[in-house]
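pasting for the record
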Amino acid sequence: MTYPAQPPTISGNNVTVAYFLNNPKYLQRLMNNLIQQRLIGDKLLSGRVDLTGSGSMLFEVGETIYSDKSSERVDALMEYPNTTVSGTPPQIASTEKWALATDISDEAIARNRWDSVNRALVKIANRIAFGFDALTLAAIGSAVTQTSAASDAWSNASADPFLDAMLAAAVSDSLNLGYSVDTFVLTPTYYARMVAAAKVIERLPREGADQPILTGNVLRIGGQTLLKSTNLPSGVNVMAVDSVNLGSIAYERLGGGYQGDPATDSGVESKVFRKESNDGVRIQVRKVAVPVIQEPGAGVKVTGA
């Protein structure tokens, strides 16, 4: 391989290693495709907060939407009753940079070993995706303390997984704090038990070729989105979550010529540059963010399932 690199080329339908390495935007697009298949933390914390320039934020946890005093009936010309509006002690969150790099040799590029590049990208994507996802779900699991007991273990024939999850959602909804649970997150085994439960299948529509009863692609049941993850904290198998109110992903733009936008769902940035001293090319990827749980009451754990 000569330096500087020659303009990238496409021969027929063959996309070469050099084509991707010389086109950072295409590399970033491939990276995003890999990562977005594996993340769910960004779906549970749907808010986005830009911390560029500071890297930190103050926020209140579980702030009530009501004043401290209830309203009173007031007769003509009487003074309005006064009330305080209490908050909660502020907390601070600061972004952290999670990063990995890998080197692609000139030999691999010259011999067009696309598989070596693809495998490297997959491994980096997996580490970043699962690492930050585990961090996010651990933060959620630690902050959410409300529980709802299942009526029976889901492995028993008499269990009703969907009812148990809906009753858990009702715990959060009944707080009258504006929460409305819209997502169930489950480990793969419990996801399978909910989807396969006869009582759930009976409720699914049968009309149309793309209905869940025919395709098995059950993503929404009873207005709830079902997500599965192996990153749920130990001892947590099912959670009901209001993804709108639970919290946010706070991110920071550090610059440096990286491709990608920290504000997107993946939030992963990438950079490709020549390493002349090593006869190769380096791919660096990073995610600069922090999960922020602002309303822990917007989540409920199902226990005893």
